[in-house]
Amino acid sequence: MENNIENKMEEGVVYRGVAAPILIKELVWMLSNRPWFFTESSETNVPREGTPLGHSSWANFIIRDEESTGDEELCLVTKLLILDMLENVGIHGATIVRARAGMHTYAENTVVNFPHVDSGLPHYTGLLYLNDSDGDTYLYEETYKYAGGFLPPLPPIGTDLKVLRRVSPEFNKLLIFTGNRYHASSSPSKHSKRLTLNFNFTLEG
Predict the structure, then answer these.
(1) Helices and strands counted in the chain (H then E)
(2) What is the pLDDT of residues 3-57, one digit of tens each?
(3) Strand (E) positions, 11-86?
(4) What number of other Cβ atoms are within 10 A of residue 65's Cβ?
(5) What is the rounded CA–CA span in Å between residue 124 and residue 204?
(6) What span, in angstroms and rounded, lies between the C-alpha atoms of 40 and 46?
(7) What is the dihedral angle through the alpha carbons of 181, 164, 186, 99, rounded to the nearest 10 degrees?
(8) Which residues contact 181 (CB under 8 A, 6 or more apart)?
(9) Model pTM score
(10) CB 82 within 8 A of CB 199
(11) How many C-beta atoms lie closer than 10 Å to residue 39's C-beta?
(12) Do residues 91 and 1 make contact, with C-beta atoms less than 8 angstroms apart?
């Protein structure tokens, strides 16, 4: 991986048009014909005590612990899409650890979900926007110090983290950042849905 890319990923780097549109459209079509699973809290699969209304979302888990969750066709298309994108931006030798499609639906007022990291192990996080929408992604100045692979506890509800940058959803926009940076999604208030492909990957060496 080029050093300038690695340095940029500390604060998040954005690319436009690096994914093959035909693969995005294929993925979206496949997802429209697969089950989606409701999650009470957007950043975790386990309901969080004290979570206010409005933080729910829908998900389709495609890859977990480097393995398909069972839908081999969906897994294959997802891997092709992710690896092709990464190669196009100069990131080589990636191992996809986890991938999930996420869908946030319309809310009258935008809800910013809770800051979190995706894993307690060193990794990078990628977010590909699958449609034009609103509902920015928030990256925070605070980062998590890895500690033995345990998934870090979520910051207490109401914790005021400092926003480093916001990234707005656009079709075929890719955001990549170091996985220990706290981040959060938000719900759309001007569109019916916000579709994303969230993935975590590691690099050789």
Answers:
(1) 3, 11
(2) 566 777 888 999 999 999 999 999 999 999 999 999 887 766 555 566 666 678 9
(3) 13-16, 37-39, 57-64, 67-68
(4) 7
(5) 12
(6) 8
(7) -30
(8) 10, 12, 117, 125, 139, 140, 142, 143, 144, 164
(9) 0.92
(10) yes
(11) 17
(12) yes
Other beta carbons within 10 Å of 196: 24
Two tokens, residue 22: 């035909």
Taking CA atoms, 47 is separated from 41, 42, 44, 51, 57, in Å, by 6, 9, 7, 8, 12
Number of residues that make up the chain: 205
Q: CA 86, CA 93: separation in Å to the nearest integer?
A: 9
Is there a contact between 201 and 96 (Cβ–Cβ < 8 Å)? yes
Q: Which amino acid is at 85?
A: M
- What does the block give as tokens for 19? 């994914």
The answer to whether 134 and 189 have CB atoms below 8 angstroms apart is: yes
What pLDDT sits at residue 173? 98
